[in-house]
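pasting input
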Amino acid sequence: MKLLVVDDERSMAESVRDNLEFEGFAVDSAFGGREAIDRLLKDQYRLIILDVMMPDVDGFEVLSELRRTNIHTPVIFLTARAAEKDKLRGLGLGADDYVVKPFSILELIARVKAILKRTAPGAGIEQLKIGGCIVDFMKSTMRVSGKEQELGRYEADILRLLSSEPGRIFSREEILDQVWGINAFPSNRTVDNYIVTLRRKLEGDPKNPAHLFSVYGRGYKLIP
Amino acid sequence: MKTPEDLYRKISALFNLLEQERSPQITCSILTLLDYSNVALSASQKQFFHSLLAKYIPDIRTIEQQLSNLWKTAEQIDRTLIRQKGACRVFWGGRTLSVNAEGEALLYSPDIRPQPPVLLTRELPGEPNCEIVSGLWAYLSPDEIRVAQNGIRNQYRTGNALLILMLLLGGGLLAGVFAVSRRQMELSAMKTEFIATISHELRTPLSLIRLHAETLYHRRIPDHKADRYLKTILVESERLTGMVNNVLDFSRVERRLIRVHLEQADLPALCRHIIESFDFRLEQDGFLVEQHIAPDIVAWIDPDAFSQVLFNLIDNAIKYSEDEKHITISLECLNGLVTLRVADRGIGVPDKFKKSIFDDFTRVDDPRVSARRGSGIGLSVARRLIDEMNGRIEVSDNMQSGSVFIVSVKEYHETTGG
């Protein structure tokens, strides 16, 4: 899923976009509040970086409009408005962060990553019981029949994603997008390989899985 | 306050308050009523209250002396206001306010009681004098606030409001008197707003410079984009310079230090140079720019000052354009008068603002204007610079839509100089 950068200063929007793309994110940009709302009503985004002072519709109004229409995409305000009352207003409207210009791009990216991590599907899950296996996301370990095994980063992220909606089928593309990011290079086969490894670790009989199912032509689902 | 009975009633109320709190401010209020009210008390009545006060407040003499000095100074500033229309009251917040009869009737109300503070700026947006006295509202009910607002508004309109601010420091009194004309009060509030706005304004180019420099430094973009990044840094530095120059010029104007050095200048070349400095921004924002610059015009101007004026006009034309991004810049010379026109198809300037838009801190009262960054000094600096060059600047409506800013200066004559 993409990120959206909204700023009426084109140079600002484009440079923030360049920097996010450098980090491997897929990014769209909008140069006004109205354009941002149109895009957000049409497409789904993982996070919005939103300017406040824009001539057509300002950033505060954009966020209010989104929340009114039940769109809860995380928002970082990126604005020259440094007054405390503006920060309180922005955060009060439901923004996830408020960054004042001039800013450090590396800090902004760190904040983007922190929010993406915090708001990722299944982000709140610390432990998960799958059959006789207990997954500890905090320690990145998996305990089966009293034996503890390490859980790799992508393995943990795949399990976290699938367990965010038990029983729902996640396509390979969706898993790639959420776990690796849309601009990352792994192929669909990468997902298959990780699923095979996970089955070896948590299924009693990996050839006849009881929890981590393939749904032919559609993807994978987890039934704990 | 019309009768001695009214005065008695109100003095009694203040003594009740003094009973609860031995405050020098309440003492000042009582002294003010005794000595400076428009209802006269007899000498024996005054003596009675003075001796009563002395029982509550041992250093009453010092306070009396301070208050007397304060009123002497105030009277020098506006005798009529104080003697015939005004009244004075010292508030708990340490402020004394002179208001008219309506205010007087209200302020000496015996049922003075603390109320939750009310932010007056919410009540009277754009009337900065009221903001200055906002401490008052902590002691008034909503109805009383309305009456006081009317009183202050009336006085405000007469343009001769007198504010007396008493700063109470420690046990003693430090008094200062300021006669503030309506325009001065407006300017004072505008300056506060200006400081907030300009710091916001400067952040935009500054953040673009930092972002682009940081991105280049960390090599986070492909090589083919590097030139564009460097160009942005250059353009935004120029924009920042323009803004800083505006602030500096404005500050010099304020301190009457502005100086222009008139000389013969190749105006077409100067105009082309300034327009070129906007090329990148104009192209990036999708503007179409028409230029009609007549050749061989030599004007009697200060080139730096004129450049700043043109910079401000083009910057505004970009800023206040909406969908029709079209700017026409023309320069011609007719009968010894050089005329520069910058026309846009933006939101335009309403008739009632066509003159005042060149005043300090003035921005058109329109949500489309307030939504755009702006400090309200660009055009006032332009006007002052043009005045110094013995020229003229005005605005009229563009034929299609938007506005045309017209600057006229003298052509250079070899025989006469300017």
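fyi The first strand of chain B starts at residue 87 and ends at 90.
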